[in-house]
């Protein structure tokens, strides 16, 4: 008897010999073995941490222990803001939990319009489009803007969503050396003069926390007739006089054509967006697959985003506190002799560079046991094959918390030989 209940002899044809099934999952064997080897050494898997409870923007319970969070992108600490939470509750009560579909069909609610209005006010632009994540904003904008026979020029250390936006599109892809104005100029100079070109930059690069020389890069892009998109995911809220990002800080508001951002960092929820002053910007809504062919964000989420963005417009004290926190952590780690991703506290990310995976995992584990959770990052996500413990600061970290974190870094760093 077969599973269907048919006797094989009742079939009126000879089944053809079946080719052995090729297991498509076998390509992951190397990765599975590497992960297992790590787990077999007895360490906690750095990529499988579960938050049992989150008490505040800077404190969670992990494996039953109170733990300081030093790796979230909740830079401005908006996740527990009472006004933001109230806005989410009110939208949930009024509109329910879902959105019924794409932004184009059933899925645009009052609060999507509110979030886009808040973005236009925050950035001072004529246009704002909300996507379901920052990943999709990059994917959608890059693949839609640059077409066949055109060029997208990107920094070699670009975020995965930028690379994937290039792959999703049909334009020619040109990479330049990380943060090298000279290499950007050289590569743009080799392209056909009258072809469409988009240079994609990031204000802050998230692995090392270094910033881009946007002023020089935008000048070079404009010299070669290219449009510019800047991803300001890691600068929103605290860079520039209005918190718009590194591009605002460097005086480039009239020159950057498109700014991409996310709600998953300073805004404190989830979602992505692009803002622009381009008079035809609205056309993106009817041309962009990543906008059209996916469900929109729930009203509770966009309502929290709108409330948070409006509060960020006047969050001057939080901004000042975040920078003070970045200086305290960066200065403290530097004084202890740790190798850091940047010479100065250039952003809210402080990356500690370790010798190899073994040292990085041991130190990461030591820190977690002591009561602080940071992010471990390793190749291929990191530049130049580095192993990093990436710390990111929140405006809500207190001086005492950071003093405690520094003491934990000293003990863990000495234990693994990262500092003398
Ligand atoms: C530079 C950059 N762009 C885009 C994204 C994607 O944002 P989201 O988390 O909203 O998908 C990230 C996320 O980490 C990022 O670091």
Automatic annotation (TrEMBL):
Keyword set, alphabetical order: Aminotransferase, Pyridoxal phosphate, Transferase
MF terms in GO: pyridoxal phosphate binding; transaminase activity
Pfam family, any one: Aminotran_1_2
Cofactor(s) the protein needs: pyridoxal 5'-phosphate
InterPro entries: Aminotrans_II_pyridoxalP_BS, Aminotransferase_I/II_large, AON_synthase_class-II, PyrdxlP-dep_Trfase, PyrdxlP-dep_Trfase_major, PyrdxlP-dep_Trfase_small
Matching Gene3D superfamilies: Aspartate Aminotransferase, domain 1, Type I PLP-dependent aspartate aminotransferase-like (Major domain)
Domain Aminotransferase class I/classII large: start-end pairs: 66-407
The family this protein is said to belong to: Belongs to the class-II pyridoxal-phosphate-dependent aminotransferase family.
NCBIfam families with a match to the protein in the record: SerpalmtaseAlphaP, SerpalmtaseBetaP
The name this protein goes by in its record: Aminotransferase class I/II-fold pyridoxal phosphate-dependent enzyme
Species whose genome carries this gene: Sphingomonas liriopis
């Amino acid at each position: 008897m077969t599973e269907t209940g048919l006797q094989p002899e009742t079939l009126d044809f000879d089944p053809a010999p079946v080719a052995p099934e090729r297991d498509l999952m076998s390509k992951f064997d190397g990765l599975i073995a590497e992960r297992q080897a790590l787990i077999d050494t007895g360490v906690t898997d750095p990529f499988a941490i579960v938050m049992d409870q989150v008490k505040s923007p800077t404190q969670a319970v992990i494996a039953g222990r109170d733990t300081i969070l030093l790796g979230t992108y909740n830079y401005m600490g908006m996740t527990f803001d009472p006004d933001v939470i109230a806005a989410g509750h009110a939208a949930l009560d009024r509109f329910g939990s879902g959105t019924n579909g794409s932004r184009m069909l059933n899925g645009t609610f009052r609060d999507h319009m509110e979030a886009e209005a808040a973005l236009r006010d925050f950035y001072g632009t004529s246009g704002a489009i909300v996507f379901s994540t920052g990943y999709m904003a990059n994917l959608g904008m890059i693949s839609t803007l640059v077409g066949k026979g055109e060029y997208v020029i990107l920094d070699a250390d670009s975020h995965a969503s930028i690379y994937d936006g290039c792959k999703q599109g049909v334009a020619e892809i040109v990479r330049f050396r990380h943060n090298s104005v000279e290499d950007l100029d050289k590569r743009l100079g080799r392209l056909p003069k009258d072809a469409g070109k988009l240079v994609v930059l990031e204000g802050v690069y998230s692995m090392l926390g270094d910033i881009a020389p946007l002023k020089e890069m935008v000048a070079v892009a404009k010299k070669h007739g290219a449009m510019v998109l800047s991803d300001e995911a890691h600068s929103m809220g605290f860079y520039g006089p209005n918190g718009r990002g590194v591009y605002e800080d460097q005086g480039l508001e009239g020159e950057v054509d498109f700014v991409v951002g996310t709600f998953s960092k300073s805004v404190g929820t989830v979602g992505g967006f692009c803002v622009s002053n381009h008079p035809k910007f609205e056309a993106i809504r009817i041309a962009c697959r990543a906008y059209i062919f996916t469900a929109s964000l729930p009203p509770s989420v966009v309502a929290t985003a709108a409330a948070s963005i409006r509060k960020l417009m006047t969050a001057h004290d939080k901004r000042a506190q975040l920078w003070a926190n970045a200086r305290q952590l960066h200065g403290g780690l530097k004084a202890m002799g740790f190798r850091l991703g940047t010479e100065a506290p250039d952003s809210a990310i402080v990356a500690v560079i370790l010798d190899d995976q073994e040292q990085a995992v041991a130190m990461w584990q030591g820190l977690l046991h002591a009561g602080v959770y940071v992010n471990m990052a390793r190749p291929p996500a990191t530049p130049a094959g580095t192993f990093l413990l990436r710390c990111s600061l929140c405006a809500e970290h207190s001086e005492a918390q950071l003093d405690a974190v520094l003491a934990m870094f000293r003990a863990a760093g000495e234990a693994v030989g990262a500092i003398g």
